[in-house]
């Protein structure tokens, strides 16, 4: 499983914060 921290960095640049939130809930 990819660490959320790494995804958060990408989300900040790609604006995929929604996807990050969903992954945390799911």
Catalogue the unreliable spans. Answer: none
**Count of strand segments:** 0
Overall geometry: flat
Main structural class? mainly alpha
Structure, described:
The structure is a single chain. By secondary structure, the protein is mainly alpha-helical. The protein has one domain. It is 77% helix and 0% strand. The protein is built from two helices and no strands. The protein has helices spanning 4-14, 17-25. The radius of gyration is 8 Å and the shape is flat. The mean pLDDT is 61.
Task: Give a concise summary.
The protein has one domain. Helices cover 77% and strands 0% of the residues.
Summarize the SSE layout with pairings.
Layout: H1 4-14, H2 17-25
Task: Identify the notable features of this structure and list them briefly.
single chain, 26 residues, mainly alpha, 2 helices, 77% helix, flat
């Amino acid at each position: 499983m990819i660490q959320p921290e790494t995804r958060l960095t990408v989300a900040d640049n790609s604006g995929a914060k929604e996807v990050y939130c969903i992954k945390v809930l799911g």
